[in-house]
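Dear colleagues,

For the upcoming journal club I promised to circulate an example of a predicted protein-ligand complex. I picked one with LLP because it came up in last month's discussion. The inputs are reproduced below in full, followed by the predicted structure.
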Amino acid sequence: MHTPSGIKTPYYLYNLDVLHRTLQAALAAAGNYGYHIHYALKANHNPVITDIISNYGFGADCVSGNEVTEALHRGFPAQKVVFAGVGKSDEEIQHALENDILCFNCESVEELQIISQIAEECQKVAAVALRVNPHVQAQTHKYITTGLEENKFGIQLSRLQEALELCRQSQWIDFKGLHFHIGSQIMSMQPFEELCRKVNHIWQKFRIDEYNPVMLNLGGGLGVDYSNPDVLPDFENFFSHIAKNLAIPSHIKVHFELGRSLVAQCGSLITKVLYTKEGNQKDFVIADAGMTELMRPALYQAVHKIENITSEGAPALYDVVGPICESSDVFAKNIALPLTRRGDLLAVKSCGAYAESMMLRYNMRGRAHSYFVGDGQISGNSCREEAEATVQ
Ligand code: LLP
């Protein structure tokens, strides 16, 4: 693996060739079905990454006012920006209205009333898709399941009629269609098939066509293979399953909000071994990156492949842990690595999504920076500072 040398660890290393390949594959597959993709900025808002994605013509999926600002700043056209979230503040709603985004993904009747009220105050009609909670089991970790009755997301089916009526009655709401998002890191196509069947049923039962919809947004969720970081997601397979199972009028534009699947495999977290500590039953590799740079193992018991990129010694078993004062600060237990010593570099793979964007300052940690290979260059930036300079 090609890594810049003499750079302070830990750092995020992005391979832009992989990013380009992933984006091209996603666009080509979506194009086969006339589908539109909005990139979910929450997966990674590094400006080098988002600049590339906006240049390809993707839309943006945002979950905060700052993400809306950042998406516009990175060149995503306002008419390709959607804005979801169960707790949009009045200021965020006003800000999105002023910027003429494609639509709000509205998550409750209560929010719809506030959007209508703020739209009237601003004398601007708000474009709205209703996010419906379809009660579909996503078969993923419970913390990234969003489409069950117990989850806070979306409008429950029992209140959808009320929400639709409100859209019809309010002159300040322009109803665009329905939105769904059932969860993240979904590896089987079965939940997506189930989602399509639910959408078909809801479309009929609630006579959605009578409200003049123009779009259906099926959210994100397509998973990546964390045990094979070189394998890119099969976008063609994903979209073909959707196309086979969706039965709504053909003039309705179908949108997706992909995050992880577009960026996960292009990034690694590079960390230096500080100590190998001999324990009673096992040896620990203590790395200089921890849950502050990659929270996923601690939060979702996620497993990322780890490679020692500087040693070719005989394999031994280790627990790979970080320096943070939490027992949950463990990247992997009992994994085989080539004989590992102080000073070795480890690559934690598939860190392009939900690693840098979830970076924490806990324990007063410094910020890990990011570097880029591929695209004909090796370059670094302190992207965090740059990104944060653009938010309010
Ligand atoms: N749309 C909505 C409304 C979402 O809530 C999400 C992700 C996405 C789209 C993008 O989903 P994706 O294509 O990335 O699965 N931090 C967690 C993942 C949280 C996902 C939150 N919502 C993790 O590291 O696994």
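Two points we might discuss: The first strand starts at residue 11 and ends at 15. The chain has a mean pLDDT of 94.

See you all on Thursday,
B. R.
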